[in-house]
Each structure stands twice: as C-alpha cells, then as structure tokens.
C-alpha cells in the first residue's frame, strides 16, 4: 500500500504483558523490528498502548470513576515508557507525548510537536489517552489519527481480524476481508469502542485489523500480504 505515509499503531497492554507479570520483551522487540522496517521505508509511525495489564478504570464504593480513570491513564504512560525504551534498544528514535504534563518523563502533546518528531524519523508514542476520564485508548488513538492526518489506524489484536461472530464460540464464524465502518457501527461489532467507531465514521479514518501473534503482521499490513480485515470508510 504505497499510498500509506503515516499510521498509528494500537497495541493492547495485555498483549505485551506476560501472564506471570512483567513484559514480554521478546514480543516487544519483534514489534520494534517490524516498526523499524516500516520507518526505514519512510512511513511515519505513531503508537498508542492500552493499560489493561495494569489497570482498567472502574468505580466502586471506595473509588470514584474519574480517579480510577486517572490511574488507567497513568498505566498507559508506564507502558509507553517501557516499550519506547525497548524500541530504542532496537535502534529506533522515539519520543513520548502526553495530553497533560508529566514533568521530565514525557513531553506535552501538540500537533506541531508530533509532526516535528515525525519529520525527524522518530516513532511517536501517544500516552495518557485523551487525558480525560470516561474515554479509552481507542478514542485516544482515533483522536490522534484524525488530528495528525494519519492514513490508517493499525489495530494489532489477539484475534486475526473481524468476524461476524465470536470464532471461539462459533466455529462457523466468518472473517471479513473488508467491512465498512457503517456496518461495524450498525452491527455493534466491538472492534473498537462505540465512541471511537463513530469518530472513525464521521472523520473517514480507515482501520486495518490483524493478529499481533501472526509473523510479520505489522509489516504485512502495509504490503500486499495483508491477511486481516480492512475497515473501509
Ligand atoms: N483512560 C481514560 N481516558 C482515556 C484513555 C484511557 O480514562 O482517554 C483510562 C480508562 O480508565 C481505561 C484505562 O485508562 O480503562 C486503560 O485504557 P484502555 O483503553 O486500555 O482501557 P480498556 O479498554 O483496557 O479498559
């Protein structure tokens, strides 16, 4: 796909973590090397990482939703700091931007700053989601992709594409090669959350959904070998 010049890649925090705790360094190094292949070919790559390995914002009698979500946003920053360092160890240049000040740990997001880093060939991590509670990193990635005129969002998932029903439950489940964002919204397919899906629809932001476990899947997403689902707009 030669027309793709800028992508934002979404990684789930849980996918990067080991079941027994800590990070799966081997997997993260593999991701870094795939991203390096894409960056070396001249594509700008932004990265958004979820926080589910540490925390999912949820309220209970003792903790209010806004505070729980703040912890969730901080969890995404910890993930970005770790993964950014692994990327650096693999020879990539990186920077981390957050929508709120984190002292010297990250830099404050602005469109101009992100574009400046992309021009320098850096991978830009967008940590801290939208900076607001009641949102998710799904909405965070769509927001950044739209603001930064990305050509597509790459969603690396535990599953290798979008199915008409859950393949773990229904062995007859059919995988889509392509599906329109309108259909994703109408059928509530839950590829990304509803707020994020509607933002993609209204702003014509396509998605490419594929399995993170599949060998070379990030590189293949930008080549003719793509095996996942394209969400068209
Ligand atoms: N979060 C938030 N605002 C954002 C992005 C994330 O409040 O803009 C919080 C929220 O609590 C969420 C957590 O950070 O549960 C981790 O983000 P992620 O998108 O991974 O959430 P998940 O979908 O795993 O619950």
Write up this protein.
The chain has 233 residues and is of the alpha/beta class. The chain has one domain (6-225): Acetylglutamate kinase-like (Carbamate kinase, 3-Layer(aba) Sandwich), CATH 3.40.1160.10. Helices cover 37% and strands 18% of the residues. Helix 2 crosses helix 3 and helix 5 runs parallel beside helix 7. It starts with 5 loop residues before the first strand and ends with a strand. The structure holds uridine-5'-diphosphate. The site of uridine-5'-diphosphate has 22 residues, from helix 3 and helix 5.
Instruction: Characterize the overall form.
Output: globular
| Second rung of CATH, namely the architecture | 3-Layer(aba) Sandwich
Q: Could you tell me the CATH topology label.
A: Carbamate kinase
Q: What is the residue-mean pLDDT, rounded to a whole number? A: 95
Largest sheet report: 9 strands, mixed
User: Which ligands appear in the coordinates?
Assistant: uridine-5'-diphosphate
Q: Numbering strands along the chain, what is their spatial order in the largest sheet?
A: 4-3-5-2-1-6-8-9-7
Distance between the termini: 16 Å
- The CATH first-level class comes to Alpha Beta
Strand segment tally: 9
Q: Could you tell me the radius of gyration in angstroms? A: 17 Å
Work out the helicity level.
25-40%
Beta strand %: 15-25%
CATH H-level homologous superfamily name: Acetylglutamate kinase-like
Helices, by number, come to: 8
> H/E element string?
EHHEHEEHEHEEHHEHE
